[in-house]
Amino acid sequence: MNAEELKALSEQYILHTYARADFVIERGKGLRVYDTEGKSYLDFVSGIAVNALGYGDPDVLQAISEQAARLTHISNLYYSIPQVQLAKMLVEASFADKVYFCNSGAESVEAAIKFARKWARTN
Hints:
Helices cover 47% and strands 10% of the residues. The protein is built from five helices and three strands, in the order αβββαααα. The longest helix is centred in the last third of the chain and has 18 residues, at 105-122.
C-alpha cells in the first residue's frame, strides 16, 4: 500500500482532530524516523515524549523482550517484583517517601490534585 492509499483509508476510518504531516512514517532507528519513500527525519517529537530513548536500541529491545516474555502488564491490584524495585529506586533517588504508579497523564494529574488537597488539609 502506498502513502496516498494509506492517507485515503485514514480519511475514511479515522476521526481527525488535528493536522498531520503529509508523509507516512514507516520505521525508526536511533533519533531518526523514515517515511515510506525512505526520507529521513530527526524525531524531535519522540512520540509525544513517550519514546525519548529513540528507536531500535539493542539494550532497550532486549529489556522489552525479556519482560514481555514474563509479563506485559498486570494491574496494581497485584504485587510485582519490577514495580517494587522501581519504587525503591525512585524513592532512594528523590525527595519522596513513596511513589504512586498510574496508567495515564490524566490519571497522574488527577492524583496530583488529590494529593495537593490532602496535603493542604493536613498542613
